[in-house]
Amino acid sequence: MRTSPVIPVLVIHDAAQARPLAEALVAGGLKVLEVTLRTPAALDAIREMKQVPGAIVGAGTVVSTEQVAQVKEAGAEFIVSPGLSTKTGAAILEADIPWLPGVATAGDIMRGLDLGLGHFKFFPAETSGGVKALKALAAPFYQCKFCPTGGITEASAPDWLAIGPVLCVGGSWVTEGTLPEIEARARAAASLGR
């Protein structure tokens, strides 16, 4: 979460596009890449992106124990889930892969703390009350760090990154356009909050 201020949230439909996309993002300074399990190409995309020097590739939208096994086999270096499930969470903790579970309430955070976690994805960030909601949640959970994701844009990212316990944000805006445009967007995103 401290490697770069923006983690690209990637939905890959064709694994053949994964490596060039990862190369453009890494060249622009964004090394941490979250490949969501929203398409049949996702696992192959993780394998392809891991071939890019400097890329730290993880799996997002992990919602089942079966997916935990699949992403571990594919070589995912971290796991992001949209929520915090104790059953899936137990499988992730047993697999010993860094995990960023989604939280939106105080109860979610407390369940995460019970599991020994202290880093969370605030999701869906904008529709869960935005910056004001996260500031309110972060106050009593001062020991926690967050990565807001869901509705974050290039324009709103600096507001999120200005919150003390926010280490990074997740966003898909950096992946729009041609590969040179993506590299340029990644370069701009990598300079946010620095």
Write the layout of secondary structure elements.
Layout: E1 6-10, H1 18-27, E2 32-36, H2 42-49, E3 56-60, H3 65-74, E4 79-81, H4 86-95, E5 99-103, H5 106-114, E6 119-122, H6 130-138, E7 145-148, H7 157-161, E8 169-171, H8 179-190
Parallel strand pairs: 1-2, 1-8, 2-3, 4-5, 5-6, 6-7
Helix pairs in contact: 1-2, 1-8, 3-4
Which short descriptors sum up this protein?
194 residues, alpha/beta, 8 strands, single chain, 8 helices, four-stranded parallel sheet
Could you describe the 3D structure shown?
The protein contains 8 helices and 8 strands. Strands 3-2-1-8 form a 4-stranded parallel β-sheet. By secondary structure, it is an alpha/beta fold.
Brief overview:
Helix content is 38%, strand content 18%. It has helices at residues 18-27, 42-49, 65-74, 86-95, 106-114, 130-138, 157-161, 179-190, and strands spanning 6-10, 32-36, 56-60, 79-81, 99-103, 119-122, 145-148, 169-171.
Q: Total number of β-strand segments?
A: 8
From the N-terminal CA to the C-terminal CA, the straight-line distance is 14 Å
Question: How much strand content do the residues show?
Answer: 15-25%
The average pLDDT is: 97
